[in-house]
Amino acid sequence: MEKSPARWWDLPSATFLFFAILFSTWRLQETEWTEGLIHVWNIALLGLMVGLALGQSMYQKRGVILLTAGYMLTLFTWQLLGMMEFGKEETYLGDKLIVLAGRIFLGVSEFAAGRPVKDPLFFVALFFIPYWCAALYSGFQLTRHANPLAAILPNGILMFVIYFNHYTTRDTSWLFGLYLFMAFLLMGRQKYLRDREIWRERHVQISPESGVDFNNTIMVSAAVLIILAWMAPSSVLTFNSYARKTWQSISKELFPQNDRLENIFAAAKKENIPVSDVYRSEMALGTQASQSAEISMLVFPSSPSKDLPRLYWRGHVYDSFEGGRWLTSSVTSINYEAQDGDFLIEDAQNRLRLDFTFNVYTQGQAILYTASQPIFVSHPANIIHKIIPTTGEDRANIEGLDDLMDISALRSIPKLEAGESYQSSALVANPSIAELRAAGSEYPSWVTDRYLQLPEDFSVRIRELAEELTADQDNPYDKTAAITNYLRSEIEYEPTISFPDGTTDRLEYFLFDVKKGFCNYYASAETLMLRSIGIPARLSVGYAQGEMNVENTFYTVRERDSHAWPEVYFPGYGWIEFEPTGNQAALERPLEAAEEPSITPVLPEQLEADPITQDKPAADETTGAKPRLTQTQIIQISLASGFIVLAALIFYLKRRYAPNLQTAQILKTVVERSGWETPQWLNRWVRWTELTPIERSFQSVNTALRWMDKPPSVDITPAERASLLTSLLPSASADIENVLREHQSALFTRRGGDALLARRAARNILYQVLYLHIKNFVLGYNHAAPPK
């Protein structure tokens, strides 16, 4: 399409651009950063209207700039005044303008002085500028230059920037889908208009229906592309995590942290991004437990949640308690990659392998949380562990490690960012009470050497309490259960704890004086009490199981689920979790061993794709996050996607290279060559394809007569059929006359018929028949019989 003094006005294109800008500004509103963001929406839509008008006008560059500045000043002032509340004495426009100018000047002064600008008016005014410019530029480019890419990119970039700077637990990805849908429609529409101009210049005959067909094709193609993009699991796109990390590194270079710029946005009320509370090689007991409802992660198990035992998401294990702090002593580390395979751990028998996907919501998460006991992670890690010497044939399959590992922690390399995900496999145990009672106390030396440590000044009172509680028990399980039940019943859960001056032993104060505290104290007390009576135990920290969603497909784990619990060693079963903390549900185990495991073990190669999309779940108990796709669902989606793509390809090739070849005729030829009898429905389909568009429209008369129980005989003329239908359906007489006239014109005149008019009339006839049937069904009477 060559440039000319004419402007390129097209109402459908302007409508598509209008909705695209609408969805772009809607994404900003979803941030809820401050009140008054609706005015940014207004400014963007007004900017679009001004841009469309200026592009359609005959003003040149200087005139466009002057008018843009004038409109901008006027509309900005109008919208900002609408945000403000004035007293009764401030009724004159001049007074209001002075107040507005004062607030803007104050905001600029605060920024210049290096102080935070907390006025929401100033914050919103800053957003007016990019959204006004983007919308005005888009409209101008569309009507002045018919450039769809320049029209759609600016607001898409704004949407992209908002996405990467707005942390939320709500799912707003659907806005991206709608924006992309409108972008595809706009670009497809503009492509058609350009091609139509070329065809006209070359005197190519264009069907009146080509525009409708082309627009329908654009809409279907755009919808298919969006649906396929949304249905594809993001982990199938292996570049997803690399792309995110690349963007993060680029954005840090292009947009370094600047405190002065942060001062501009001090008025924004942002959702708190959970910051990783890294469990390091030592941990103090603390004075307060987290109560935040912010989401830390979503966990998708490979089996339905209802079929699983109680789960804990372990982050770090501590083996030594000194000076009121837990420590990890005498450990080594080794780097690990997913291709290294499973790492070897002790006591892998009597456990089931389960796979999990962890979707991270914590900024800078340094620990790879897993179920107990981990044997594989898909993310690069540094394994913090103690070597378990072995003389058997078993060797770890990690290069450079020749011993079993007693794993303390898996540190992420590099740290995980919010929005990333990883898979983990763990050997989960759920032994019965009878099995644990029968496990005995033949502990291996690597367990007793490390997990019976007590501080030199360990409290005699705590030791005596442990001995008193377990005096009547004759096995490690019952002794552990006795201490667990005592702590659950006698100690009250309290998320905060304070100590009077001079307190020398905080655990003594917790157990005998205040008798209140949170998980760190419950778990620490039980671990040390068990060690004092010769039962190996250790302290694990991470997260409790979290909330199960309605479909039992994933857990929502929040900051308030951060937890500490004791793990007790049982020969033949390894480390088993216990739950002494009062605010957690009691950990119940089966009384007797089940004949068969209730959970089907999952093989390593069955680890499935990660369901995360860069978009996050809705802020809800169940969240709006997409549930993890099963292998069957992935196959079904892949097959459906393949059929859709194949059908689209066949449709394109047929329209491009064989527009006159009918599908019905192809099927009939295949059936006849195969020696089969052609079915009647296929014969009717072939006859239908051989009709002209106007003859197909006239078939509405025959169809309407059959629907009204008056099927026409083969010997009556089209005019007689039309007359019969008119007597039965007088409300459609005009449309019946139109379709008959166009049918006769196509048969008997050089002019031919108007296919568009005939098709519209046929549609109206069928609509009238359906309406009459519905009316008769509702009101309970029949249409009158035709006069004889």
Helix/strand/pairing category:
alpha+beta
β-strand number: 19
Number of helices: 23
Query: Could you list the spans in which at least 5 consecutive residues all have pLDDT below 50?
Result: 1-5, 233-241, 392-401, 596-633, 782-788
- Share in β-strands: 5-15%
Helix content: 40-55%
Report how far the terminal alpha carbons are from each other. Answer: 62 Å
Question: How would you briefly describe this protein structure?
Answer:
By secondary structure, the chain is of the alpha+beta class.
Notes on the structure:
Helix 5 packs antiparallel against helix 6 (148-165). The protein is 47% helix and 13% strand. The chain is of the alpha+beta class and 788 residues long. It has 23 helices and 19 strands. The two termini are 62 Å apart. Strands 9-12-7-2-17-16 form a 6-stranded antiparallel beta sheet, with no helix packed on it. The protein has a 4-stranded antiparallel beta sheet with strand order 3-15-18-19. The longest helix has 29 residues, at 173-201.
Which key terms come to mind for this protein?
788 residues; alpha+beta; six-stranded antiparallel beta sheet; four-stranded antiparallel beta sheet; 23 helices; 13% strand; disordered N terminus
Detail the topology: elements first, then pairings.
Layout: H1 11-29, H2 38-56, H3 61-83, H4 93-112, H5 120-145, H6 148-165, H7 173-201, H8 210-231, H9 240-254, H10 259-264, E1 282-284, E2 295-301, E3 313-318, E4 320-322, E5 325-327, E6 332-336, E7 352-360, E8 365-367, E9 374-377, E10 381-388, E11 404-416, E12 421-428, H11 433-437, H12 445-451, H13 460-469, H14 476-490, E13 492-493, H15 506-514, E14 516-517, H16 519-532, E15 537-543, E16 547-548, E17 555-558, E18 562-570, E19 574-577, H17 631-657, H18 663-673, H19 680-689, H20 693-707, H21 718-728, H22 733-748, H23 755-779
Parallel strand pairs: 13-14
Antiparallel strand pairs: 1-5, 2-7, 2-17, 3-15, 4-5, 6-10, 7-12, 8-11, 9-12, 10-11, 15-18, 16-17, 18-19
